[in-house]
């Protein structure tokens, strides 16, 4: 029989992981069908990426708000509301008739996802003690590459059928309403039940000062921001790159990106979480060590895939292995975000991290790539900022690994 502290934990992992899966399906469907709605709505390359940026802007601005609400409010209700809003907004994009209506629909997706993204990790940290969180987050964040892959593949497949890009938005958006209702079945665990000291949530002014003085948190978020800049840009533009510059059909390009994302993302998330738990006895800051070192081969392979190989199978091989390394940070970095702060600030620390990684990360990268390509007409050259940002992320995390003191929450 489960204890009161852990009762309902398994259900929470299942429901929250399902939300994470849908989160990334809905997020990347537009990238798989961008050339289709570009033609129908008469958009430029830069405009095709702006709905993604609009979503991320709203998402990052609303995340600190939901982080504050989640410190004291009913988290199950906030989750159900958030998932319901983003699911309806995803489906609503199918009704877009011009650039403005598409932009509004995708912006509303950000409102809903902000509720989920800030609350879910904090809830999981209240179900599980620090030494188990990396493993639980490994399960939880496996849904990130799987959902991304489904979004690319399903979007590309549906876009190539008679349903078109409008059908892709409908099919991917409406199932989220069922998951929203399932949130009401979860138990809301006591906040900070595994913390030695019970902390009253401080006001934002004090919380922000504490977070900015927390070197582990700051370096974790800084590296996360650089890598998010890179992954946002490559995820939004890689199917189009394969289609325009490597001669693949839109359906094949979406399927290829989906395939390498799900295999590499699953492998990288699981491998990164596993290795980070195993090397804690051998080095300080094992989570930062795994995250930073993994970015080096990822950077090299991204460069090779974009600039040095032409054959489809060679591109597939390079990107597949690059994805394994690129996703290795997923569980360790998110475990660090909750382990680095007290229970009274966890939801807000996640909300602030979301604000930073998107404001300075993938809000800018997709339209910057599109705008540069509108000017120079050379998509591979426009993508050069992607490996550069991966290198910056690697440097920041490696500095944290080498110079921060021993990590208190590292597994023994």
3D structure, described in words:
It contains 18 helices and no strands. By secondary structure, it is mainly α. It has helices at residues 9-32, 34-41, 45-72, 75-92, 99-127, 130-160, 164-173, 176-182, 204-212, 215-245, 250-278, 286-307, 312-326, 330-339, 346-362, 365-376, 379-382, 385-403. Helices cover 78% and strands 0% of the residues. The chain has one domain: MFS general substrate transporter like domains (Growth Hormone, Chain: A, Up-down Bundle). The longest helix is centred in the middle third of the chain and has 31 residues, at 130-160.
Furnish the topology, listing elements before pairings.
Blueprint: H1 9-32, H2 34-41, H3 45-72, H4 75-92, H5 99-127, H6 130-160, H7 164-173, H8 176-182, H9 204-212, H10 215-245, H11 250-278, H12 286-307, H13 312-326, H14 330-339, H15 346-362, H16 365-376, H17 379-382, H18 385-403
Per CATH, the architecture is Up-down Bundle
Reading off the top of the CATH hierarchy, the class is best stated as Mainly Alpha
Question: By CATH's scheme, which homologous superfamily applies?
Answer: MFS general substrate transporter like domains
Uncertain segments are: 1-5, 408-412
